């Protein structure tokens, strides 16, 4: 028995979107790739996911045109990693709205802290997912930083050269 229905042929765009994005691993994989963690080992380690599950989910995101394989050099060897397509980059407002919703409507665990979404163009924190609440400009992955105090770090989304657009 399948775990869920196939909604790929549905008229409802929400069902079709959930057919692609409904697996919880997909959005956190996209989040990490947008943060520049496009190497298999980096994804596995940061997500705490098994290699088999990660491999299946990466293949599914490639099939859905959310990620593409890209070559990178590793100590003289050419290896393959993953980069976001424009379709994945367009998920930024969804991810940011989820983060903002989670800040407002879920209980923060002990040791957590407020995650700030910083628009690097104006330098201000935004309280919206699609346009900056401070300056009104459209938010793009390469212009965002997520400050995560529980990690003592700031994650820049899509460092230079990471975003790729898949060609048909």
From TrEMBL:
PROSITE patterns: HTH_HXLR (PS51118). It holds the Pfam family HxlR. Signal peptide: none annotated. InterPro entries: HTH_HxlR, WH-like_DNA-bd_sf, WH_DNA-bd_sf. GO terms for molecular function: DNA binding. Keywords: DNA-binding, Transcription, Transcription regulation. This is DNA-binding transcriptional regulator, HxlR family. It comes from Rhodococcoides kyotonense.
């Amino acid at each position: 028995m399948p775990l869920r229905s196939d909604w790929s042929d549905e008229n409802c765009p929400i069902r079709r979107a959930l057919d692609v994005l409904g697996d919880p691993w997909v959005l956190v994989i996209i989040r990490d790739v947008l943060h520049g963690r496009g190497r298999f080992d980096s994804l596995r380690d940061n997500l705490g996911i098994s290699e088999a599950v990660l491999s299946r989910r990466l293949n599914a995101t490639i099939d859905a045109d959310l990620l593409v394989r890209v070559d990178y050099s590793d100590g003289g060897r050419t290896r393959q990693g993953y980069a976001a397509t424009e379709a994945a980059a367009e998920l930024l407002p969804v991810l940011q709205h989820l983060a903002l919703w989670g800040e407002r409507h879920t209980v923060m665990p002990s040791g957590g802290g407020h995650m700030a979404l910083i628009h690097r163009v104006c330098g201000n924190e935004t309280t919206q997912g699609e346009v900056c609440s401070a300056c009104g400009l459209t938010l793009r992955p390469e212009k965002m930083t997520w400050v995560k105090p529980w990690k003592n770090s700031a994650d820049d989304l899509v460092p230079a050269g990471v975003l790729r657009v898949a060609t048909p």
